Amino acid sequence: MAISSTLRDLRTSLRARLLIAIGAILAVGAVVLSLAAWQYAATAARDAYDKLLAGGAVQIAENIYMQGGVVTLDPPAAAFATLSAYDHVFYRVTDPRGVVVAGYDDLTIQAPKSALREGVVLRDGVYRDQPVRIAAVARRLDGAPGEGWSEIVLAQTLRARDALTWDLASKAIGLIAAMSLLALVATALCLRLVFAPLTRIEAEIVKRRPDDLSPIAITPPREVRALVGAIDGFMQRLAERIALMQRFIADATHQLRTPLAAIDAEVELLSDQTSDPKALDRLRGRISDLARLTSQLLDHAMIQHRAQAPRFAATDINALAKSVLSQSVPLSLDREVSVSFVESDDDVVVAADAISLREALANLIHNALAHGARTRLMVKVERAPAHVTIIVWDDGPGIAADTQQRMLSPFQKSDGSHGSGLGLAIANEVAAAHGGRLGFSGEARDFSVVLELPVDRK
């Protein structure tokens, strides 16, 4: 469990991921540089020993002379001593007739004679089952028979070269490893310095009280300024949301006390005046008001919640408006009201949250029946190029123009109204959540509440 937790922390740690990525890059770079160092060391060792080998072949050639018509060699002891310090050295001297006058008869080199006469020729080869480096050169001797060219072949095993290659390469690779480790440590220290502002921001947030949603005071680095700004914006929206809910709870508490106190008073009167038949009717009305207020309070809270995370789907406004109208009109009213529905002939399917839209339209219809319509109520759906409109029309007194905007706020009532003041506020919030608007049209006896919904939401 501890190992899995550690691995999970490494996967989710930005610092660890950066260190791992940089470490991997440094490791790859170290391997590439080590291979390059090895190749360079091998080249340097080969060139150095090739010069010694070529110089030895030239010294042997310079020590050949004619004596009594025979090619004779005076071996250069210094050249052989230098070449044979770590390796075996083999040589062969051939006179112009091709007769071996010194050295090993079977030592040969694959090179044309013309190349040997132009200078020292170097080749890789194998002699007596050992890899060797071979140098060959030809020298013209005066008085020698034939063309007078004598050939000198000198071979050396590769142990000294390999030892020098390993020495040079190991030192270079050690230096590369040390520099890579130093770079990784420096990166870790730099990351600690780079992440220090984030650590301070984290410490500030951890020390805060739960109710402290003010912006972060520390100035963030430019690279994370957008992230810190997003956090500040989120905390600001959360603070506004909490303040809104607190205001709502306070208002709801105040609004609930009024009908409850009225119910209490009516009950007292009912107990003292049982002969008054209107007392029961008033009590029923108060209870109905309380039930309506409670329902609207819950609806309002639900609408506010859904506005933060709307669930839009294709909705047929004709069908929805017709369904809400049929369910919102009670079977019996204290007055005769003609109810009608006019649907749009055009396509009125829009992306909408059907649940919140249903609650908004139900509240508009209830307001029209309770406070507006005297004899007629009509719900009409119209289609415009850019939006769909739901019109709730009645022949009531309407709302005065100077109070219409105020009525869109929660718990705002018109003069003489006994409602809760939430119906229009709920509808207005639903319209805003859909990117539309709620408006008013007409005057007394011809008053409409208009709910507009955009056809294409941006």
UniProtKB/TrEMBL annotation:
Principal place of residence: membrane
InterPro entries linked to this entry: 2CSK_N, HAMP_dom, HATPase_C_sf, HATPase_dom, His_kinase_dom, HisK_dim/P_dom, HisK_dim/P_sf, Sig_transdc_His_kin-like_C
PROSITE patterns per the UniProt record, alphabetical: HAMP (PS50885), HIS_KIN (PS50109)
EC number(s) from the headed UniProt entry: 2.7.13.3
Domain Histidine kinase, chain residue ranges per copy: 251-457
Membrane spanning residue stretches: 18-41, 172-195
Alphabetical keyword list: Kinase, Membrane, Phosphoprotein, Transferase, Transmembrane, Transmembrane helix, Two-component regulatory system
Catalytic activity: ATP + protein L-histidine = ADP + protein N-phospho-L-histidine
Location of this chain's protein in the cell: Membrane
Molecular function GO terms recorded: kinase activity
Disulfide bond keyword on record: no
Enzyme class, UniProt record, top EC level: transferase
Domain HAMP: 192-243
Name of protein: histidine kinase
Species, as recorded: Bradyrhizobium aeschynomenes
